[in-house]
Design a protein that fits this description.
Layout: E1 8-9, E2 12-13, E3 24-31, H1 34-38, E4 46-49, H2 56-64, E5 69-72, H3 85-91, E6 96-99, H4 110-113, E7 119-123, E8 126-129, E9 134-140, H5 143-155, H6 157-172, H7 175-182, E10 198-202, H8 208-214, H9 216-222, E11 225-229, H10 232-238, E12 245-248, H11 255-258, E13 263-268, H12 282-288, E14 294-297, H13 302-312, E15 317-321, H14 327-332, H15 339-348, E16 352-354, H16 355-362, H17 368-388, H18 391-407
Parallel strand pairs: 3-4, 4-5, 5-6, 10-11, 10-15, 11-12, 12-13, 13-14, 15-16
Antiparallel strand pairs: 1-2, 3-7, 6-9, 7-8, 8-9
């Protein structure tokens, strides 16, 4: 049978022109804050984000929601450092697109061109409305393009490290900030009795979910006070662990986690801001749910604040899960320096251990079957010796030996 133009043979169209790739279709979901958007996504959507240098944590949160495509209103890899987020999405089979600049070099703003929930299609590199109208030109981030950009970003890492170190040193030179970090003036009053107890501080960092799973035995045996930093509380609850304290800005945590019964501590600015912004912006969300919280005004990240709180309250040991420890971690977080983290680690270092070290101690559980076998043999040995000292026992042993000789002859 002769195939007409536009027919399909072996997965490719035949005819006068080569087939265009199949269109990717779905409803648009817009979100300038990726972590908030990922919490409300349904599978099969076309996600539009506004996230320069997508980090791995945000990418994994998106990948779990199984969108059909991710379109970035900014550059997914700017070349500032080798961020891992786009690679995570591509490995999950989710295509990633950046906006192509127009002839004047300007990028169209998709947030002003699209409405949330609007149906769109991606045909090749064209973003189209349902009626076929062009919205914007896209650039797909293929594996080859990704590798080229990552190589270029690695070459820029030395310059980024230099700038990062300079910002850190500038911050360290501010005596007032050092004093607030090293001698916080206002510790919240807590119901949880931390003094003399082990404390687990859980942060949403690289591979933190896997690290938490490895700590099951440690949690059961040591029963530490658990401090969750923001969205780590959701993961802890999903794994059956209720945090004793939730500390953070309260901007990346679910309502159910806030209502779980943990003590809530809002990380506040150390000084009133000159722009009139609220000193503890996370407090408004807590109060809107009818809950109460205390504030902890201290510079640095919420991760730093949690470690400092555990230390100042007298924790015997602080086990850190998902904390940020290297340059790429901090660049993923959008931090220009690590002065607060540097100072806090210096202060709490004598009591601080990483979760992976603890999991190595607790992760290798003894196999129970060989152990029971050894115990059984050790218990039977004196019984056998006593039986062999009697005439009936010796006769029984000789019968067993004779039976084995006949059986294996």
């Amino acid at each position: 049978m002769k195939l007409s133009a536009g027919s399909v043979r072996g997965g490719r169209r035949t005819g006068d022109a080569a087939a265009a790739p199949a269109a990717v279709k779905g409803l648009v979901r817009l979100g300038r804050r990726t972590k908030e958007l990922s919490a409300r996504l349904a599978p099969g959507t076309v996600v539009v984000i506004d996230h320069r240098d997508i980090d791995a944590l945000a990418a994994r949160a998106l990948a779990r929601r199984r969108p059909v495509a991710v379109i970035n209103n900014q550059s997914s890899i700017s070349g500032r450092y080798p961020n891992r987020g786009p690679g995570v999405l591509l490995e999950a089979g989710i295509p990633v697109y950046d906006i192509s600049p127009d002839e004047a070099g300007a990028r169209p703003d998709l947030f002003s061109l699209l409405a949330d929930g609007e149906p769109v299609a991606i045909q090749g590199n064209d973003l189209l409305r349902e009626d076929g109208t062009m919205i914007a030109r896209l650039r797909e981030l293929s594996t080859d393009v990704l590798q080229d950009r990552l190589d270029a970003a690695r070459a820029n890492l030395d310059a980024e490290l230099r700038a990062f170190a300079e910002n850190t040193l500038t911050y360290l030179s501010q005596a007032e900030e050092r004093a607030l970090l090293l001698d916080p003036v206002s510790l919240p009053e807590l119901r949880a009795a931390i003094a003399g107890r082990p404390v687990l501080v859980a942060v949403r960092g690289e591979n933190y979910e896997e690290d938490l799973q490895r700590l099951g035995r440690y949690l059961r045996e040591q029963r530490p006070i658990v401090i969750a930093v923001d969205g780590a509380a959701d993961t802890l609850l999903a794994s059956g662990v209720r945090p004793d304290i939730i500390l953070g800005d309260m901007d990346s945590i679910g309502d159910d986690a806030l209502r779980c019964g943990a003590e809530l501590v809002v990380h506040a600015y150390a000084h009133p801001r000159g722009d009139g912004a609220q000193q503890a912006p996370g407090l408004a969300r807590v109060q809107s749910l009818g809950l109460t919280a205390q504030t902890f005004p201290v510079p640095g990240t919420s991760e730093d604040a949690a470690l400092l709180l555990a230390y100042e309250k007298g924790a015997d040991l602080i086990v850190a899960v998902g904390t940020h420890t290297n340059l790429e971690d901090f660049l993923d977080k959008g931090r220009r320096g690590m002065a607060s983290t540097f100072l806090v680690r210096l202060k709490v270092g004598s009591r601080l251990v990483d979760a992976r070290g603890v999991s190595r101690l607790y992760g290798k559980q003894e196999r129970i079957t060989p152990l029971l076998g050894y115990l059984l043999l050790s218990g039977l040995f004196p019984v056998i010796v006593l039986l062999m000292s009697t005439s009936p026992g010796r006769a029984a042993w000789e019968s067993i030996v004779l039976w084995f000789r006949v059986l294996f002859r």
